[in-house]
Amino acid sequence: MNTEAAPLASVAPTAVLRVPVHVAAIVWGVAVWSWRHTRWAAGVAAVGFLVRLVPGGQSAAVGILALGWLVPGLVAVVWARWWPASFERVVSVPFARFSWARWARRRWPHLARECGLSVQRDGRPTRSALVLRAASPRTAPALSKVWVHPRLCSTTARGVTLTLTVRARTGQTVEDLEKAGPALAAAAGARSFRFKALSPSTVEYVLVMADRLAATRNAQVPRDVLVDAVPVGRRQDGTPWVLPLVGRHTLAVGCSGSGKGSIFWGVCGGLAPAVRAGMVRLWGVDLKRGVEVGMGRHLFAQVATTPAQAVDVLTALLRVIDERGHRMAGHARLHTPTPSDPLHVLAIDELAVLTAYTDPDTRKEAGRLLAEVLTQGRALGVVVLACVQDPRKEVIGLRGLFTQTIALRLRSADETRMVLGDGAATAAPAHRISPSTPGTAWVIEEDGTADQVRADFWPDQLVREVAILHPAPVAEDPAPDVEVSPVDAAKSVVAPLIDRAGVHPASSTVPAGSRARKPRAPRKPRQPRPATSPDGSATGGEAA
Ligand SMILES: Nc1ncnc2c1ncn2[C@@H]1O[C@H](COP(=O)(O)OP(=O)(O)OP(=O)(O)O)[C@@H](O)[C@H]1O
């Protein structure tokens, strides 16, 4: 008795319990699978039943039922439960794509009618109806009505999107088709949609059928030297979201906690290899006491943490613009960044402190300088990234001077209109972004389509690591004396990172923040060397 009890006792009770739980889950999963594929299951059962009626067909019927019903169900349930990612990639998403496209093709007349895209017109009269009408116009039955729909030219399912290309019916405009977008997306059960006019009569509805932005994704340490554009996250169809920088001024607007930090570090961190290579020079204006920029201080050539220092930074940038303007006049119309002549990127966190909440003199001066940088810097290789919470005109009077805008979570449809323009509240509803998905934003593409994106998250540790790995080189043309924020606290945290990465600032480029060197101590006069006697004992110098 005891010999049998020993092995049982050594098995953990939870492991014993888990087996029936798994069996129950598989049985339940097969039942649900059969319910979802009723037609398939009923068809296999019917075939099995017919084969069973044939003399001697009993074992064949069991085989049909097992192979056609239970085995596919079991495989699907076990695969989906234990290897969900590969099941989604290989089975569920391709199958879903096929069914989305088939659904749209089959249901188009019904969809178009219910979404207000179709009209009812008199049908073409038959010959008998014409004869009856001619004989007695009063008693002849009314002409039958027919529905006229816009034409569904093609349906394409790719990734998690279903694209419907639609041609307007006679009498319909692109605007009429655009209005039906939200109803169409709702009918398809889409998470969101994009609308694109291909011509005055043909449009594309891109229905995003699954949410690829729900999960948080951490940013990676950037490796490539990128200057023109940096990847900052992903789009709703799962493709990378790449933010163009050269020749653009970017405004990121979102209420508190909407994830502006991810945009800020997405740009500054993404440019880090280019900073180290000298192709980009970062200027930081952090008017929230330097808390944000302090994390990655080494990346920045210069940092301002008060409005007065910000004015100095803007003045220095205007000097760069003046000097470049003179140099480029008659030679080039767009600046090309090089290590000796880098792209200057001014990153401002909480622009409102500078433009609305500081003393009137500084505000006026800062507004004037910033307006000059925004209007003249673009082509001369000086671009601005500004983050702000409040998009009202009295806070950012210079809104119109930014060439691209990112709308993170906003507080109202009015704010969405202020940031993205009229009509954006429907196509790009930034005020409906959930507070549980910080970093999510709406952007308007160059072709006018609205797209939802989510920035990758930059944990503090990653920001520090990237700043240490890619410090800004010491500038040969020192910027004006702007007081730098303290970096000692950050240094103590990042010291282990330097060792781990095997990159020490002293061995490569020196971080801008550690430029101030201690004055050297004066040399002491050399003492005469004591003479040494052949037996090794010191003697007086004179004796030698
Ligand atoms: N891309 C992201 N993915 C997931 N979580 C994020 C992302 N970005 C930010 N968060 C989370 O949201 C919180 C707020 O983010 P963040 O500080 O960037 O907001 P903010 O817009 O700068 O707010 P404030 O203006 O008040 O400083 C962060 O602490 C972080 O936990």
From TrEMBL:
SUPFAM superfamilies: P-loop containing nucleoside triphosphate hydrolases. It comes from the Bacteria. Keywords: ATP-binding, Membrane, Nucleotide-binding, Transmembrane, Transmembrane helix. Gene3D superfamilies: P-loop containing nucleotide triphosphate hydrolases. InterPro entries: FtsK/SpoIIIE/SftA, FtsK_dom, P-loop_NTPase. Residues 499-544 are annotated as: Disordered. ATP binds at G254, C255, S256, G257, S258, G259, K260, G261. Residues 515-527 have a biased composition (Basic residues). PANTHER family: DNA TRANSLOCASE FTSK, SPORULATION PROTEIN RELATED. This is FtsK domain-containing protein.
